[in-house]
Amino acid sequence: MPRVTILHSPGPREVREQALDLPEGATIRDALVAAGLTPVEGEAVGVWGRKVALEEVLRTGDRVELARPLKVDPKVARRERFRRQGSRAAGLFASRRPRAKPGY
């Protein structure tokens, strides 16, 4: 009997973990049904961070992760944050040592 772990995040900064014993030959879809979860359109399903199909057969020790879709594109969020903060407060060289050369 494969023992797998199911992880999902119902909301921001909230992660739920559930360990399951499944019959031999169980798929990811079987594991999600056993955990009481159903993948919604836009949610990604993966094993150890690698995106997989719901028909993939699970092995002992697999960690199934159900990821929510992003609400904002990370590139757009970074641009908006930079626009709000300005160029002085953002970036790698924002806090320089006193009397240091530019870029250090």
Automatic annotation (TrEMBL):
Family stated for the protein in its record: Belongs to the UPF0125 (RnfH) family.
What is the scientific name of the source organism?
Ramlibacter humi
In terms of superkingdom, the source organism counts as: Bacteria
Q: Which InterPro entries match?
A: Mopterin_synth/thiamin_S_b, RnfH, RnfH_sf
List the protein's name. UPF0125 protein EZ216_03535
